[in-house]
Design goal:
The complex is a heterodimer of chains A (about 110) and B (about 110). Chain A is built from no helices and 11 strands. With about 110 residues, chain A is mostly beta strands. In chain A, strands 2, 4, 5, 6, 9, 10 and 11 form a 7-stranded mixed beta sheet that branches. A 4-stranded antiparallel beta sheet of chain A has the order 1-3-8-7, with no helix packed on it. The chains are: A mainly beta (about 110), B mainly beta (about 110).
């Protein structure tokens, strides 16, 4: 089966600019996650979707981050405006029952 | 809040030796414990997982043990090979249905 697709792979922006990431989960996976992975650390959950509804966004900095999952399939994560500390890899994952499958991530550098 | 602690942060072994990585978790309701391997520039890849109704699980050179009473679980890799070099993450689900909380990772280096 095809894996979790993410784009772009890399993005460099200046602080205060906006950026968007896209994720296409594995077909049939109802649950989709966005994780932030800062260099040298484990992934940290930003938001969890079940179909097109939000299950957990308690750790999403809502003043600058937003995410949506229209039609319960693809998802986009947006940052506006970006800060230097947002530099990280943004990982998308999907699951059907238990095990997560991660995409390769988008490496964001904010300068 | 709930967390997962992972040790050691770095581990260097000779090819053919065994490697052990240990994790502890705080949420007594956790019942799913996966291990992920992350190579440079890639997303984490699931290598083995264990559920709370099982004490040990093995898949070829990889095994995971779980002690629910002590709230700790471990990854064991035997006969290590250079291609095992990567960062390994443990994780536990938050509550019985919740999302995963990850440890900080262990960088494993296998020297030929």
């Amino acid at each position: 089966e095809a894996g979790v697709a993410q784009s772009p792979r890399y993005k460099i922006i200046e602080k205060r600019q906006s950026v968007a990431f896209w994720c296409n989960p594995i077909s049939g996976h109802a649950t989709l996650y966005w994780y932030q992975q800062i260099l040298g650390q484990g992934p940290k959950l930003l938001i969890q979707f079940q179909n097109n509804g939000v299950v957990d966004d308690s750790q999403l900095p809502k003043d600058r981050f937003s995410a949506e999952r229209l039609k319960g399939v693809d998802s986009t994560l947006k940052i506006q405006p970006a800060k230097l500390e947002d530099s990280a890899v943004y990982l998308c994952a999907s699951s059907f029952f238990g095990g997560y499958t991660f995409g390769s991530g988008t490496r964001l550098t904010v300068v | 809040g709930e967390n997962v602690e992972q040790h050691p942060s770095t581990l260097s072994v000779q090819e053919g030796d065994s490697a052990v990585i240990k994790c502890t978790y705080s949420d007594s309701a956790s019942n799913y414990f996966p291990w992920y391997k992350q190579e440079l520039g890639k997303g984490p890849q699931l290598i083995i997982d264990i559920r709370s109704n099982v004490g040990e699980k093995k898949d070829q050179r990889i095994a995971v043990t779980l002690n629910k009473t002590a709230k700790h679980f471990s990854l064991h890799i035997t006969e290590t090979q250079p291609e095992d070099s990567a960062v390994y993450f443990c994780a536990a689900n938050l509550g019985s249905q919740g999302n995963l909380i990850f440890g900080k990772g262990t960088k494993l280096s296998v020297k030929p």
